[in-house]
Specification:
Layout lengths: L11 H12 L15 E3 L13 E3 L5 E2 L14 H13 L6 H8 L3 H15 L13 E9 L20 E8 L5 E6 L4 H11 L5 E5 L13 E5 L17 H18 L4 H16 L8 H10 L19
Parallel strand pairs: 4-7, 7-8
Antiparallel strand pairs: 1-2, 2-3, 4-5, 5-6
Length: about 325
């Protein structure tokens, strides 16, 4: 049976029961006071405007559903459709556009766009554990995407080079297969080195290309290997462990998704798109996750996060 045919993707009561089982493994918890002992479930009654999944806390007298305190709080669309969106976004290797969600879920484009950003916010891990802490290899590289309108105003000819593009720095831990990416303002060594030192353990061995901003990394980490891409060298001729092919593969998926699916992204939203691709790459089949596992991992990330439409600013066309 296909995962998308599960009852919680089509029935609202089943959707609430499923999300409660994921977030409340030991029973309902009041998000207002943290109480767990005097919680009672209120029977749904549309005639009396008592919504499905409602609970009442006998300690603080507050009412709540499992959506309170998550990125789904105050969402006006059915929960089962939001769960469908989570599954579609986590199982599609290169992403799903808001226009596609709008058609598949039969909601407005504006609703689909905002929902997609809620889900991307859930995908942001916030994990700050340094990569390569066991002395392993960490690949480092940067890529460029879109156009930074603060540098190159709308309508002005782009020209050659990368100065006018958004800059994304990314790391891949070869041992764990995890990726960590971030939008950066500068690729100068003075700006990148502190970022790398904060995200990579000192005992790690770092692999990069021959870019000048990485030349001094041997003094920061236990080792630094690099290949000369400009000379057509992608694997070291003497040591095949020296390469950045792993992170180049991750970037290829990111670029195809951003150009082929999302097409355009404003800089203020780029960090969430970066988090989306990072999440899927880290939780891919090679690291032991299937589509259902990836969906569950995203749902585990919805708690304690809140994003309002005002915070996302104006709608970005094509996102």
């Amino acid at each position: 049976m296909s995962v998308l045919s599960k009852a919680y993707f089509h029935d609202e009561e089943a959707a609430f029961a499923y999300l409660e089982s994921k977030l409340w493994t030991e029973g309902a918890v009041c998000p207002h006071c943290g109480g767990v002992d005097r919680i009672t479930k209120v029977k749904a009654n549309p005639a009396k405007r008592i919504r499905l999944g409602l609970y009442r806390c006998g300690q603080c007298k507050g009412q709540f559903t499992v959506k309170v305190g998550t990125v789904f709080e105050h969402a006006r669309m059915p929960l089962h459709k939001m769960l469908q969106a989570v599954y579609l976004m986590t199982s599609s290797k290169k992403g799903v556009s808001a226009h596609q969600l709008h058609r598949m879920l039969e909601v407005t484009y504006k609703t689909a766009w905002f929902l997609a950003h809620r889900i991307r916010e859930a995908m942001r891990s916030g994990d700050l554990t340094p990569f390569g802490s066991n002395g392993g290899i960490v690949e480092v590289d940067e890529t460029f995407i879109g156009t930074d309108r603060t540098i190159k105003p709308h309508g002005e000819k782009k020209g050659r080079g990368y100065a006018h593009k958004h800059k994304v720095l990314s790391l891949v831990d070869r041992d764990t297969g995890r990726q960590r990416s971030m939008v950066v303002e500068s690729l100068k060594a003075a700006d990148l080195t502190p970022i790398l030192a904060a995200n990579i353990a000192a005992e790690a061995i770092v692999m990069t290309d021959e870019a000048s901003q990485y030349r001094a990394l041997g003094a920061v980490f236990a080792g630094h290997g690099f290949t000369r891409h400009g000379a057509g060298q992608y694997v070291d001729y003497e040591n095949p462990m020296i390469h950045t092919n792993t992170i180049e593969g991750a970037f290829s998926i990111f670029k195809r998704g951003m150009k082929g699916v999302y097409q355009h992204c404003a800089k203020k939203h780029l960090h969430r798109y970066v988090a989306e691709f990072e999440f899927r790459y880290t939780n891919r089949e090679a690291t032991g996750f299937n589509d259902a596992d990836r969906c569950d991992a995203a749902l585990n990330g919805i708690v304690g996060k809140r994003i309002t439409y005002r915070r996302t600013d104006s709608v970005s066309v094509g996102a």
